[in-house]
Amino acid sequence: MTRSTRLEVDLDAIAHNLSELVRLLDAGPVSPSRSPRKRPLIAAVVKANAYGMGAAALAPTLVEGGADLLAVACLPEALELRRVLPGARVLIMGHTPDEYLSLAVEKGIAVTIFDLRQARILSRAAAELRREAIAHAKIDTGMNRLGLKPGPEAPELLAAMSRLTGLRIEGAFSHLALRDRDSDRRQFELFGELLAEAAALGAEFPIKHICDSIGMMRYPEYRLDMVRVGAFLYGVKPLRTPLGESVEIRAPFALATRISRIRKLAEGEGVGYDATFIAPAGGSRIATLPIGYADGYMRCLSNKAQVLIRGKRAPVVGLICMDQLTVDVGGIPEAEEGDEVLLLGRRARRPGSADAPGPADAESAASGEIGVLELANWAGTNRNEIISAIGRRVPRVYLRGGSIVGSVDYLET
């Protein structure tokens, strides 16, 4: 690895979060539709490079820990997983262009469909390749993105799709908008009503699913045959859910770098473009860090965020540049060039260290963590964007038992 900036990913924390999910689902309500399964299936959502954590590196840990299926957004993400885990069940939840549907069939990848044209293409590809095509039917109950809209013709369309030879539509799903409880309930009811009407015409879908991480925590009764869980696995606990206090989710990530330069600024000197920070009376002690918005540390964090150096917080000052940013270390006189800097998350416990991993929502300086919710609030965005925005030129380092077990540098492979 040729760069001091890196994203550390604690595989033990990922495995712990997955075990917490299994425990939560085992204790939840059992729907008659799931019989004889005790709990719903788990679709581990690894789209967007597993929310920035590294899909190919995390997939084996997730499958070994009990994930029944790996869910992605597009075909290239699915092909990456197929190379790593040839036998894994993979579902593309987004749109696959017609011209690439046959490739998905060839690779044994399940795709999302929502009209008869797509289903016929899959049926023809199955015949040509002499193998089964697998799909999940997407129902648009209110998000108004992808999906078949419920209506008078929708049940027969689903039935016609299910009758095509060579095509197995193993699942049907929708997505809650999570606007409010009443509208979520109406979406769930629309989904159930359409599937009941399709079933009366002979169209059965063994795996019905509507819940993501938030829906799974907010509405246990909506879990059906499978839940699609992403953020939960990556240390982002759903907020304002009745089950929020019943699980301990650990932050598995730490975005870190090292101080590249420390300089004293005289009173009146500015920092960076537009000099949005001016050294006050008595001057300032400024540290430069080799990370910027091209690495995913957003420019909107300028003059708002804080970092941890030697267990103390230092404010980000001046505009964050594409490749560098600056922090005021005047309150940390012991800081030196080469010191470790934590920008996000919490470092995994190292062998012989007294520091133990804490809960993902611990936001205090005393916790030794820069919480993802804290950073999201500074940036004015949501937590998923914060972690998934970490760029490809940031190497990923993987730890188990506090020791490094692997790394990925996308610019060196």
Show the helix and strand layout:
Elements lengths: L5 E5 H16 L14 E5 L1 H5 L3 H10 L4 E4 L2 H10 L5 E3 L8 H6 L4 E3 L2 H14 L3 E6 L15 H9 L4 E7 L7 H20 L6 E3 L3 H6 L7 E4 L23 E6 L2 E5 L4 E2 L5 E2 L5 E6 L16 E4 L2 E6 L7 E4 L11 E6 L26 H8 L3 H6 L7 E5 L2 E6 L5
Parallel strand pairs: 1-19, 2-3, 2-9, 3-4, 5-6, 6-7, 7-8
Antiparallel strand pairs: 1-10, 10-18, 11-14, 12-13, 14-17, 15-16, 16-17, 19-20
Helix pairs in contact: 3-4, 7-8
Commentary on this structure:
- 27% of the residues lie in helices and 22% in strands.
- It is an alpha/beta fold.
- It folds into 2 domains: 11-238, Alanine racemase (TIM Barrel), CATH 3.20.20; 253-408, Lyase, Ornithine Decarboxylase, Chain A, domain 1.
- The strands form 5 sheets. The chain has a 5-stranded mixed β-sheet. The protein has a 5-stranded antiparallel β-sheet with strand order 11-14-17-16-15, with no helix packed on it.
- Helix 3 packs across helix 4 and helix 7 packs across helix 8 (181-200).
In whole angstroms, how far apart are the ends?
Answer: 11 Å
Helix fraction?
25-40%
Overall shape: elongated
At the first level of CATH, what is the class of the largest domain?
Alpha Beta
Number of extended strands? 20
Q: What number of structural domains do the residues give? A: 2
Low-confidence sequence ranges: 353-366
CATH superfamily of the largest domain: Alanine racemase
Individual helix count: 11
Main beta-sheet strand count, sense and barrel state: 5 strands, mixed
Portion in beta strands: 15-25%
At CATH level 3, the topology of the largest domain is: TIM Barrel
Structural class determined from secondary elements: alpha/beta
What's the CATH architecture name of the largest domain?
Alpha-Beta Barrel
Mean pLDDT: 93
Radius of gyration: 24 Å
